[in-house]
Amino acid sequence: MSDSPSAQPDPGGDPLVRLRKVSKQYGKIAAVEPLDLDIYRGDFLAILGPSGCGKTTLLRLIGGFIAPTTGRIEIAGADVTRLAPERRPTNMVFQGYGLFPHMTVRQNIAYGLRIAKVRGAEFDQRIHDIMALVRLEEFAERSTDSLSGGQAQRVALARALVMRPQVLLLDEPLAALDLKLRKEMGEELRRIHRSIGGTFVFVTHDQGEALGLANRIAVMEDGNIVQEGGAEEVYSAPKTRFVSTFVGEANIFSGHREHGTVRLKAGVSIPDSGAAGPVIVVVRPEVIRLDADDAASDVILTGKLIDIIFSGPYVKFKFALDEGQQAVVHSSDLALRRKFSVGETVRIGWSLGDQRVLEDR
């Protein structure tokens, strides 16, 4: 793992980790379908998906904790498909941290170095540097039983990072923490990643966590990677109905496309080229305007306001449209919650450039 703080993801170079046709079968159950995945040096990659989608299995395949049924795994150009975890240039931080309660913080962090027979000045320097990186110097002689959740997580991180893995694997790293601590530790993970210029891969079911931490996201559904790309790309340009609703909140308007026009069930027509057949129009709540007019919006719908929800930094407005459709609008203009009343009819609209038309498979 590089000590350079300037290391950045390098998607133009060769992948640091390369998976080709990797799958995992348990009897007749496919935990991971055959898939390809490239992870680049300096990436902070999130493997995102719901429970049971195969994301933790995929992480364990990369780490060598389970063997693939098919396929090949390479790290830094070397075939590691059949290598045990301790023979791979990876290290994993497990969700439960796995700290030794009978050891101090320093002893926990030093455990791997002792196994690897690192001694003398190098041993002391690596312990000193990693404890400074994760800000644990004052806790060195404490028992791990006396630590908070965030402190315990930093010990687990330090114990993994002190071994200087080329790839750090994190299994739901923030799941056990409360909301405030999750945000703080998320910022800590980003800082540590920037400081060491390393390659981090983590699994999560929390789309906000993935968007906030990762530079790239691989979204999994039923053992498959259904979309992979930059965090902003996955959010702004979802390729499937599942991705559009799992990664952030989205309005899904059903319709039918024919002769270059999409006719929505909600009662309007939208120009869009493509194959004839059923489609969905995906629109994020934050791009929809209230009190829309023809000058500012390309698509305008009329709906009955059925709820107003104050959510801190924004207000959520829920509308009932024609044909049983619903729409949600997020507005950062908090004063708008006093302008509209539940039960009134409101025009809402958006620009064509803010929508995504997908075939309704």
Number of strands: 20
Largest sheet entry = 6 strands, mixed
CATH superfamily of the largest domain, called what? P-loop containing nucleotide triphosphate hydrolases
Q: What class, by secondary structure content?
A: alpha+beta
Mean pLDDT level: 91
Separation, N- and C-terminal Cα atoms:
43 Å
Q: Identify the CATH architecture of the largest domain.
A: 3-Layer(aba) Sandwich
Task: Give your account of this protein's structure.
There is one protein chain. The protein is an alpha+beta fold. The strands form four sheets. Strands 6-7-8-3-9-10 form a six-stranded mixed sheet, sandwiched between helices. The protein is 24% helix and 34% strand. It has two domains: 17-242, P-loop containing nucleotide triphosphate hydrolases (Rossmann fold, 3-Layer(aba) Sandwich); 249-359, OB fold (Dihydrolipoamide Acetyltransferase, E2P) (Beta Barrel), CATH 2.40.50.100. It has nine helices and 20 strands.
Compose a concise summary of this entry.
It contains 9 helices and 20 strands. It has 361 residues and is an alpha+beta fold. Strands 6-7-8-3-9-10 form a 6-stranded mixed sheet, with helices on both faces.
Topology of helices and strands:
Elements: E1 17-26, E2 29-39, E3 44-48, H1 55-63, E4 70-75, E5 78-79, E6 90-93, H2 105-115, H3 120-133, H4 149-161, E7 167-171, H5 179-196, E8 199-204, H6 207-213, E9 216-221, E10 224-230, H7 231-236, H8 241-246, E11 251-258, E12 261-264, E13 269-271, E14 277-283, E15 289-290, E16 299-310, E17 315-320, E18 326-331, H9 336-339, E19 345-350, E20 355-359
Parallel strand pairs: 3-8, 3-9, 6-7, 7-8
Antiparallel strand pairs: 1-2, 1-4, 4-5, 9-10, 11-12, 11-14, 12-13, 14-20, 15-19, 16-17, 16-19, 17-18
Helix pairs in contact: 2-4
